[in-house]
Amino acid sequence: MDQAVPFHGHSSMYVMHKFFGRNQGRIIQEYIKYYTHKEGEIVLDPFCGSGVTIGEALHLGRKAIGIDINPISIFVTRNTLLYISHMRLLEEFKAIEADIKVDISNLYSTQCLKCGNVIPATCFSWQESKLFDRRYVCPQDGKSVEKVKSFDRDRYNEINNHSINGFFNSTGLLNYWFPENPLYYSGGKAFLKKERYDNISDLYTYRNLIALAKLLDRIKKIHESDLRESFLFAFSSLVHLASKMTPVRPSRPFSSSWIQPSYWYCPNYMESNVWQLFERAVMGKQGLYRAKKDLKLKIKHVKEVDSFEELQEATLPSFLLLNSNITQLELIPQNSVDFIITDPPYGHSIQYGELLYLWGAWINILEGYNDILRNEIIVNSRQNKDLAIYEHLLGQAFHKIYSILKREKYCTVTFQNPSLSIRNILYRSVIQTGFLFERIVYHPPARASAKSLLQPVGSQQGDYFFIFKKPLTEVKRIYHPITSEELEEWIIEIVKDILTAEGKPLPYNQLQNQLDPFLYKKLYESNLLLAFNPKEVKKTLMKFIGTELSVIDNTRKDSPYEKLWWLSDGS
Ligand SMILES: C[S@@+](CC[C@H](N)C(=O)[O-])C[C@H]1O[C@@H](n2cnc3c(N)ncnc32)[C@H](O)[C@@H]1O
Ligand SMILES: [Zn+2]
Predict the structure, then answer these.
(1) In this predicted structure, what is the pLDDT of residue 77?
(2) CATH classification of 12-74+299-343+397-473 is 3.30.950.30, yes or no?
């Protein structure tokens, strides 16, 4: 597998629910096809996240095991994969609609400026703590964005004073539950990704809080457990969209999304109509109904099993999900899995435990969550997990991963972090468990925007796939650190080779992306390792400007890069 695979977008099963750093199914599929050979072989992902690898393995007729320390990852994976009759979904949706649509929609009533009819707004915008404008689609007069009127303020006051129909009991108490979990660790320190808001309920206007609470209460009343689970999943997929973390965007005045991987404070935010969000989550283009209809065509009769033994016996295709810390996993025998493909947490960039907490709080699956925050592999200064601890934890995890894989089989580790030191930690922790290093394949980003190319950090930089193999018999290789002089020499030689092969000047990003595959191959062949926290390559290259390299202005207007790197002797 040397070739980069073009990105074709996420298929409908993966777009139902937001997740951070979701893999691209098409690329994963190519790797599974390449490294496993027949139906029924077992593919494992020990950091399965939202379950893309599991879905793709099943699609190819393989058996799959997904492991993740976070119960919310397991919840998302299970509901992404399990088939449920779309006819039953439709029936239940109609029943929910008949029960609560009027009450919830009533919370968002506004008056059309043209015809004067009272209709539900699609959203309101707020500036700081003031209701600002209303955005609605009148069946007669079409879309409109206007300043709020006294009608809208009065409606909001009614809600705040508990005097609106359908939500409060005779003593004025809310009839429904909503989560109030703090955005703090058990020891009292604030989440790393917390800004102004202190707990889950603070992320909402009171209107959206009670709308969500009523919707959730109705969903919990669904009798059949699989159907209930599916609707809880649709519910979970919209709770962030109903929050205050959704900025007003001039380009898309009727919708918004949770654009930052943090509990950020957004002063000018959208308050979206919860009923309409729910309708979209179930019946919309990216909704549950459509995804389950498509799933029937993509993966037939998929079955979840409860143990490894059952998986071995099972008829195709089936999967096993384990909500466990990979390091402590005891349920999978040694030398038992045919292929491992995984995407471990990358340094500090995405705080999975903290961010998935929002969804877990609403669907109430946060039992034992302090242990999850403690054991998750991550860099987080508030939890005293620095780069060295991160390397240690990754090392323990890969020790386990190594033992589970069959001999002479492959382990592919994908990585979206563009920082050399994080990639290097990953390489070091894997290689020191006994794996043989085969190669690195770099997949450029799919639709790289001009902006993403300019950003030094972010997951838009494309994906690295590291390929390792478990040997037939243990080979004890001893690795030594490379000296900084030698590393400098290697880097400049490789960069000159890359530029010569390209035959044209390149932006720094592209140089760096092409460097890794050569650098690591050379290191491995010489039994050398980069230091724990190596100097960024750019610093090394700067030293050679004027001697071996030159930096020139980019004259192309359609390119986001100002500078390009080239050989000082371009001939
Ligand atoms: C980068 S994400 C995986 C994303 C996934 N590839 C996808 O497409 O959605 C990394 C995952 O590792 C999980 N994780 C972190 N520490 C873990 C541990 N000790 N054991 C198992 N899973 C862990 C996190 O909960 C997170 O879901
Ligand atoms: Zn109208």
Answers:
(1) 97
(2) no
